[in-house]
Amino acid sequence: MKAFATLFTALDQTTKTNTKVAALADYFRTAPDDDKLWTIALLSGRRPKRGVTTTLLREWAAEMAGIPLWLFEESYPIVGDLSETIALVLPPATGTSDKTLTDWLGIVRDIGQHEIEDRKAIILQAWSTLPPIERFLFNKLITGGLRIGVSQKLMTRALAQATDIPETELAHRIMGDWTPDTTTFEDLILTDDPTADASKPYPFYLAYQLEGLDALGDASDWAAELKWDGIRGQLIVRQGQHFLWSRGEELITDRFPEFAQLPDFIPDGTVFDGEVLAWQNEAPMPFNALQKRIGRKTVPKKLLKDAPAVLRAYDLLEQGGEDLRDQPYAARRKRLEALLNDLPDTLPLRLSETLDFQTWDDLGQIREDARNLHSEGLMLKRLASPYLSGRKKGDWWKWKVDPLTIDAVMIYAQAGSGRRANLFTDFTFAVWNGNELTPFAKAYSGLTDAEFRQITAWVKKNTIERFGPVRSVKPTHVFEIAFEGIQASPRHKSGVALRFPRMLRWRHDKPIKEANTLDDLKEMLETYG
Amino acid sequence: MVLSFTKSGIYCEAGDFYVDPWRPVERALITHGHADHARPGHGAYLATDAAAPVMRHRLGDIALDTIHFGEARQIGGAQVSFHPAGHVPGSAQIRVEVDGEVWVVSGDYKTTDDGFSEPFEPVKCHAFITECTFGLPVFSWTPQPKLVDEIHDWWAKCQAAGRPAVLGAYALGKAQRILSHLNPDQGPILTHGAIENTNAVLRAQGLHLPDTIYVTPETKIKDHPGALVLATPGGMGGPWMRRFPNASTAFASGWMALRGVRRRRAADRGFVMSDHADWEGLNTAIKDTGAERIFVTHGYTSQFARWLTEQGYDAGIVETEFEGESLDAPSEEEAAP
Ligand SMILES: [Zn+2]
Ligand SMILES: [Zn+2]
């Protein structure tokens, strides 16, 4: 695993993309094929099943380090990473090992088949033979959480440099339903196979947050749709089967059985891009309806009835087996509309309607109204654009509605973890309920580093009480909290739950008496919930 | 109680003096010159002769009396002496004895010899007031020779790539500790103004440091190929850095042990180097005092106190305004020109 650790260190020691890609390309030129295949698998989110619970790993690590478990548990949030915490508390290794990445992954893959005592022996043996960085990586592999600061896109670019195969071709080859046990580096990467896996999706094109309308030019070059808060999905019908992929390139076909009827109606070689939504009475349901379905591998009948799903399709990537991605968006849309027009509306497919507008001002008006339609805002797409892969600026933009805001009082503070271990960054906010402050949201982003330093110094001097890592502080500071949505929540004391709350501004100008009230929140719930 | 904990700081009633007080008092005994320990506004100061020049440099015209390491002095009903803390040159633990009962205030300390500061000496006592900036078992420092090699190695890589190597470190202590171990034959060494000011003070009191070039607004990095630049963490975050385009950046701090912190600083390299004790160092230091009562002042106090209690000590937390080692401490850079 030395070569992989060297690669990891090289990637970790630079913030420059080109240097990262060069280090990775170098690795792809020199590593053995099976190590390369595993590296591709790991960097594209394919990892072995976890064979040991993290609870056991913590116990064994504390035991080996000679510290009580509570002290390990207290250290963990400060380090912010379990694998790193384990690597840091363990005593130095007493032996050495020359196992390869593939050897270690074999161990990780098979460890679940052993009795607990044997698992422990295997783990302790690994810990006592690996130097610190390899030990950290081993922990990452065993807990299935290896992220090494390289996106799938950069990995593909490096692989292209090392193999001289075009990046887009590679992006397609590494998608689909494979593991290092079902293929080889030769077959997956180097072989051009036209009958490749029928399930293979196209890389998603991702939109950027709009920075300003000025750069977009004439409004007539653009199409717009309402943006819905669901799951981005690619729906594939090929060889009489259907497949549904999420944006995280996870195959989620089984979680949405309502799509199983599609191959009876839709010809082979058809691929849609769209948003999976919980849908009732021809309108989207709140996001938490869909949330209930995301976590489940299989879906009980009642849930299918309570939260039926549809795909709101907005793009057609393949038709009759032909890759349409190079065609202009307008042409793809035309085909999509024609195709959906001919289908019965009992199918769980809906067209994502394009909006009618002449000028940017027209569109601005529509956006103002979007929240009332339970939409997150608008999507803008350039009519002449091809379907690109990954996040590329210029052709697709998100134009979100402005967030909702409320002024709240900070009442609890907690130190951050990992990146922000030495600062207080996690805060609980409250609104007035009569003369009492009722907590309603936690937020940990939105301030500058300088502001976090300032508030940290203040928290240290104004702590009232400590509850483990949490400190209650003297109600003094008012912050403007921004959030994307509000829902009723009986689990919370305030009765509401916010979506994506964050600190928008530190209101140095406001005394706490002028913060908002619980009634204000309830009114927002009435209007937008 | 030989010492008690007041709003102004750690107080000795028998001698009517404070140790490292944070509010202005009549008489202050100061462990070392860092801004969170040596504050302005006291009536009279007492510190080691090795700590005095930096304090005068930072605090200006103060009524400062000095004392040698190990020298005993009677103040009212208390006998005090200062003992090396190994933190920065001149830094001391302060021993206070009243009627045969001995208390020691650690100030900031590290137990390993950095080859620059006077090495830490354990002092037997009944009660020990200790910092615990890094009081968690995840902190374990890289041995200094290995660190010095790593720094030279990174510097050489930067030279090969034609990039200046900019290394961030505290202006008082850490920067000079690193400097004292740099090989000046490898290339020119440039320094940020705040560091150079401290260099001048330490050189004047006889500490040896290799020659350095002070970075002024006119400095052009092109004129100094292969340079290593010692910078303050604050300087690295600001416009000062603009004169070093294409630089490779690094920080030297105990916090660099945490990958998350390394990434937050967005530096290319992090050298795990602290002037505070690591977990092992804290535990050894406490054991070597023979003390039964332990007060922890700053750092991971609640965790460390609980750990000590379980080890059989009578341990408690004292809230102070000491800051430990902060990557973000602007207070260390007040002396910048
Ligand atoms: Zn200090
Ligand atoms: Zn300090």
Give the SSE layout.
The complex is a heterodimer of chains A (529) and B (337).
Chain A: H1 2-12, H2 17-30, H3 33-43, H4 54-65, H5 69-79, H6 82-89, H7 101-110, H8 116-127, H9 132-143, H10 152-163, H11 167-173, H12 185-190, E1 205-206, E2 208-209, E3 222-227, E4 231-238, E5 241-246, E6 270-280, E7 283-284, H13 287-294, H14 301-306, E8 309-319, E9 322-323, H15 329-341, E10 349-351, H16 360-370, E11 377-382, E12 390-391, E13 396-400, E14 404-415, E15 424-433, E16 436-443, H17 449-461, E17 463-467, E18 470-473, E19 478-483, E20 485-488, E21 496-499, E22 502-506, H18 518-528
Parallel strand pairs in A: 1-12, 2-13, 8-10
Antiparallel strand pairs in A: 3-11, 4-5, 4-6, 6-7, 6-8, 8-9, 11-13, 14-15, 14-18, 14-19, 15-16, 17-18, 19-22, 20-21
Chain B: E1 4-5, E2 10-12, E3 17-19, E4 27-29, E5 44-48, H1 52-59, E6 64-67, E7 73-75, E8 78-84, E9 92-98, E10 101-105, E11 127-132, H2 144-160, E12 165-168, H3 174-181, E13 189-191, H4 193-204, E14 213-214, E15 228-231, H5 233-237, E16 248-252, H6 259-264, E17 269-271, H7 279-289, E18 293-299, H8 301-310, E19 314-317
The complex binds zinc ion (ZN) (2 copies).
